[in-house]
Amino acid sequence: ITNKQLESIVRVVTPETLGQRTKSLIDSVKAASSTLSQATRIEELSNYLLHQPDGNYFTKKERLVPYLLYLRRHEYRKSVVDKAFIGIINECLTLANYVQEPRGKGIRLLSIDGGGMRGLVSINALRRIEDLVGEPVYKLFDYMSGVSTGAVITAMLGGFKVSLDECEEIYKHFSSTVFQRNKALGISSLITSQSYYDTKNFEKYLRSRMGERLMVKSSLDADSPK
After folding, report:
1. Cα 120 to Cα 171: distance, rounded to the nearest angstrom
2. Strand partners, 111
3. 72 pLDDT exceeds 90?
4. Dihedral pair phi/psi, residue 10, rounded to 5°
5. 87 and 181 share a domain?
6. What's the rounded Cα separation, in Å, for the pair 147 and 110?
7. H or E element: which one contains 112?
8. Which of 58, 139, 187, 191 could form a disulfide with 22 if both were Cys (CB 3.0 to 4.6 A apart)?
9. What pLDDT sits at residue 177?
10. For residues 75 and 32, what is the distance between their CA atoms, to the nearest angstrom?
């Protein structure tokens, strides 16, 4: 078999194999006798579900979610709560499609529109809310969503917990490097890549400031909104 033939081989995972592997990992979690062992095995299960999302079908049969909720309740009852362990449980719950109930009465939703430099208006409005309430934005909402640049703001505030001052600094950098673009180039880019602005530079700068992180990892922090 040549190297090219090896590269073309696609690994096929049958439902039976998927079910057996999922059950094996869940049984391993349930058999763990210490918090450290549980944490390690739950992380292994989370990594598996991340790369094999179809395995989530079998988690219901094995009653994974009720068991993880039991572990979390048990941990919260301790005099000293292991927040890192709680985060590991929360991540696995997210990958198992469990939706946490809102922390208060009703759902607190933040939605930010796009529109280039209008994002600074949203940032200033949120700063005023923080001043009035005395809490950071990420603690005030259950869900955060946005369109275009609004999505960038909510990702920075909710997923990465960037302060509003730093968020404004980053946003002003966008205004001088991304939003200021020749109209002809913008229209050409819109036709070829469905994006008016230079998204490559946009993404490169965000990575340099905040690094690479999957949004599912935000569930490791109990304070992070969805």
Report:
1. 7
2. 145
3. yes
4. -110, 125
5. no
6. 12
7. strand 109-112
8. 58
9. 61
10. 15
Tokens of 73: 């309740």
> Rounded distance, CA 29 to CA 33, Å?
9
Long-range contacts of 13-16 (CB under 8 A, 24+ apart): 13/52, 13/54
Q: Are residues 203 and 116 in the same domain?
A: yes
Task: Name the residue range of residue 153's domain.
Answer: 109-220
Name the pTM for this structure.
0.68
pLDDT at 2 over 90: no
* 1-10, 61-70, 98-107, range with the lowest pLDDT: 1-10
Cβ atoms 163, 135 nearer than 8 A: no
Residue 103 in domain: no
pLDDT tens digits, 145-197: 888 778 888 888 887 788 888 888 887 776 666 655 555 554 455 445 555 55
**N- to C-terminal Cα separation, the chain:** 47
